[in-house]
Amino acid sequence: MMDDQALLRYSRQIMLPEVDIEGQERLRNAHALIVGAGGLGSPVALYLAAAGVGKITIADADTVELSNLQRQIAHQQANIGTNKARSAKASMQALNPECHVIALEQYADGKALEALVASADVVLDCTDRFSSRYAINAAAQQAGVPLVSGAAIRFSGQLAVFDPRNPACPCYACLYPPGDSEDEALSCAESGVMAPLVGLIGCFQAIEAFKLLSGAGKPHQGLATFEGLSGQWRHFQVPRDPACSVCGHTD
């Protein structure tokens, strides 16, 4: 049970009837896996730690560079040259020492990725590579763990929640079939990105993870896109592809 300090720390969430003490306890007992500690992973990590998620694993093999600091708010000037997962862990625990953070300073793939995903209650894809997104999606589908996927480039961002527990919900490969997207794989280093955009999409990812873990509300459905220059959101319904190579089922 939460002590008086925890009740005070999370009081603004506990007073929400959709959360209450039961929802806060669910957050406290949950495990979130964040893959990527960059522009998207930074707000995700900080907000989930602040919100009281009890265990967070954050994975990233890259080190902090000066050009990251324009948008990757979990890192500071003094962290240049430090592994991003380790840097993010320090920021998360400075914000909330009660949060148990595991920093994986390497790329996770294959069986290691499958085991990591299977150990989590929710997975947040904060990467910027299609190969990573496909691998994380496949592992989440195999383990039956909900996946919150975000992306941001230039002035445009998008978010989708893929929940294998819902038979009508598509997966990432339904939205972007393997082989169709490789030529479109752009990175912020190549194309640029507006600093607050990754914060917006990352916060959106954190909201969805919060709902999935606490039981508040209902998960986002379909694909949401945001155009920063116009300030417009658009929403698209995405059906499950019965011929999908990852989640499709044949009778």
TrEMBL record:
InterPro entries: ThiF/MoeB/HesA, ThiF_NAD_FAD-bd, Ubiquitin-activating_enz. One of its GO terms (molecular function) is molybdopterin-synthase adenylyltransferase activity. PANTHER family: ADENYLYLTRANSFERASE AND SULFURTRANSFERASE MOCS3 (PTHR10953:SF102), UBIQUITIN-ACTIVATING ENZYME E1 (PTHR10953). This is Molybdopterin-synthase adenylyltransferase. Pathway: Cofactor biosynthesis; molybdopterin biosynthesis. SUPFAM superfamilies: Activating enzymes of the ubiquitin-like proteins (SSF69572). Keywords: ATP-binding, Nucleotide-binding, Nucleotidyltransferase, Transferase. Catalyzes the adenylation by ATP of the carboxyl group of the C-terminal glycine of sulfur carrier protein MoaD. Its EC number is 2.7.7.80. It catalyses: [molybdopterin-synthase sulfur-carrier protein]-C-terminal Gly-Gly + ATP + H(+) = [molybdopterin-synthase sulfur-carrier protein]-C-terminal Gly-Gly-AMP + diphosphate. It comes from Vreelandella alkaliphila. The gene is moeB. Residues 10-246 form the THIF-type NAD/FAD binding fold domain. Homodimer. Forms a stable heterotetrameric complex of 2 MoeB and 2 MoaD during adenylation of MoaD.
